[in-house]
Amino acid sequence: MTRKLIPPAHVMRATDNEALWTKIGIIKELSLMAKSVIIYGRGCFLKFLNVNTGEEMCLTLNDHNGNGDGLKCYRGHSSLYIFAYSECCQRPFIYVKSYPDFQLIVKFEGEREGFKCLAFSDSSLLFSLGEMPHYKVTAWNWRSMDKFAESANELLFENQIIRCSYGRPMYLAQLGVGSTKLFIWDVFTVCKSTIFDKHQVKIGNLKPAPFESVVWSVDGVALYIIDRNGSIYTVRL
User: Fold this and answer.
1) Is the pLDDT of residue 84 over 80?
2) Could you give the CA distance from residue 11 to residue 119 in angstroms, rounded to a whole number?
3) End-to-end distance of the chain based on CA atoms, in angstroms?
4) What percent of the chain is helix, strand and coil (3-state, nearest 5)?
5) From what superkingdom does this record's organism come (predicted)?
């Protein structure tokens, strides 16, 4: 039985908007929303590719009083059609919106320095990592529209990422990319309060190459670390 290869143009259709011509170029990060929508972006454009339908949508971010002034960082929710992104300007806002209608759910006002990275929990918390010099870790509740907690940070690296685990208990991994510095935050939430408890991961006698990324297991009980040479290390909690 022969199978016919379908050209991409036949399986992907762009929404009818003024930015359907955009090409992102070098894609530095992908985020998956609700297990079916790939999010990527750069500059003033955030694009959404639905892997089930092949539909591609584009959100233009070129107005501080509208969708936002440029794109700094973004993240999709793991199980809901919800995504968040931060502007690339001074005193940026964090926008939380629904997909595919792009309706605004909440807008959080940030610090003057801006944000470096975002991470959703699998419930109603959104975590942000601030820019230099403080690199603050903040917990926001996008359902109640509250700022729950904020913590100072000892990891002073220009290139950092945060990743939230799935399920309970909740953990937040913070990695200094290009180093072997890794922190894991225990996250405790009671009513409208969130408590952070930070632990540094000790590498002992290991001599790994600099770490490049981290990813949580589906059950949230293990953290996998990828170094520059492609080796994978496991942290059991």
Assistant:
1) yes
2) 31
3) 49
4) 0, 50, 50
5) Eukaryota
